[in-house]
């Protein structure tokens, strides 16, 4: 059985490793956003498929699909649902659970990056943005005059306002480093997405420890009717049941 694994996440890499170890023919697909991606075990293809029609055509080479893309990769998830339905391929969504606010924390939930920018502007003047580089432009109108520190994996394509600092770094992150990052910047608000998982959780602990409020963008809706699991073992079980 040939598995197409839509990746770009730690869970996708873990699943690829386990499938290869079990002798399953798996190809991980990466979008190609990052210049030097962490490559998973097994075969890898890099770059977009060319929308729903391109993916549907590509599915001729695969029997089942696991969509393990990031919770905020909504276009790829929607395309996978449409293409798999059209091509008659079983599709599983592997999505890590969202984060839960610990007691004593100060989280401000919003539904969009624009709302996050406005809430951050209300809460502070020295925000730390950890929402990725692709969404940075949404923060410029509300935070152009603020002392923003934006942490990204790869340099953004927009030129950021004067007074903003961009640091490039890639997780997983440790609590000590997160405390140093927020402390040295004298951060008074942190903005994040509900990515879930452990790789980027220490910043939430650091903010709580320093009494810094967090603005958190809620997850976008997922395509309806797609079976979903929340950990790698459940995805492995699904693949073996399909085979
Ligand atoms: P997106 O907005 O949902 O997708 C935009 C387009 O990128 C898709 O239509 C597709 O192009 C291509 N694409 C996305 N994921 C792909 C994959 N795994 N393999 C092949 N093509 C892919 O996605 P995004 O939010 O830009 O995320 C891109 C990748 O980064 C994803 O693989 C995701 O898992 C990873 N990632 C995203 C985030 C985030 O916050 N969004 C965070 C960490 C990692 P075509 O239409 O041409 O097929």
Automatic annotation (TrEMBL):
Organism per entry: [Mycobacterium] vasticus
Pathway: Cofactor biosynthesis; adenosylcobalamin biosynthesis
Swiss-Prot/TrEMBL keywords: Cobalamin biosynthesis, Oxidoreductase
Keyword Oxidoreductase found: yes
Gene Ontology MF, one: oxidoreductase activity
Protein name (Swiss-Prot/TrEMBL): Cobalt-precorrin-6A reductase
Domain of life: Bacteria
Protein EC: 1.3.1.106
Alphabetized NCBIfam families for the sequence: precor6x_red, PRK08057.1-2
Enzyme class: oxidoreductase
Source species taxonomy: Bacteria, Bacillati, Actinomycetota, Actinomycetes, Mycobacteriales
Entry-linked InterPro entries: Precorrin-6x_reduct
Keyword Oxidoreductase: yes
């Amino acid at each position: 059985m040939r598995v197409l694994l839509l990746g770009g996440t730690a869970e996708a890499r873990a699943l690829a490793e386990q499938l290869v170890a079990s002798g399953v023919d798996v190809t991980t697909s990466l979008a190609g956003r990052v210049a030097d991606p962490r490559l998973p075990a097994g075969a890898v293809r890099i770059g977009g498929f060319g929308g729903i029609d391109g993916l549907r055509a590509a599915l001729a080479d695969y029997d089942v699909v696991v969509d393990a893309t990031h919770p905020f990769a909504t276009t790829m998830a929607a395309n996978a649902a449409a293409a798999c339905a059209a091509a008659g391929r079983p599709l599983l969504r592997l999505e890590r659970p969202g984060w839960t606010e610990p007691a004593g924390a100060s989280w401000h939930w919003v539904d969009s990056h624009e709302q996050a920018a406005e809430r951050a502007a209300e809460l502070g003047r020295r925000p730390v943005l950890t929402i990725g580089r692709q969404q940075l432009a949404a923060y410029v109108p509300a935070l152009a005059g603020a002392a923003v520190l934006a942490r990204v994996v790869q340099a953004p394509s927009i030129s950021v306002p004067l007074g903003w600092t961009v640091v490039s770094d890639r997780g997983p992150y440790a609590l000590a480093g997160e405390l140093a990052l927020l402390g040295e910047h004298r951060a008074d608000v942190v903005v994040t997405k509900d990515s879930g998982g452990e790789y980027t959780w220490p910043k939430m602990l650091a903010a709580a420890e320093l009494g810094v409020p967090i603005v958190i963008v809620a997850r976008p809706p997922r395509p309806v009717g797609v079976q979903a699991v929340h950990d790698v073992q459940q995805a492995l079980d699904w693949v073996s049941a399909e085979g």
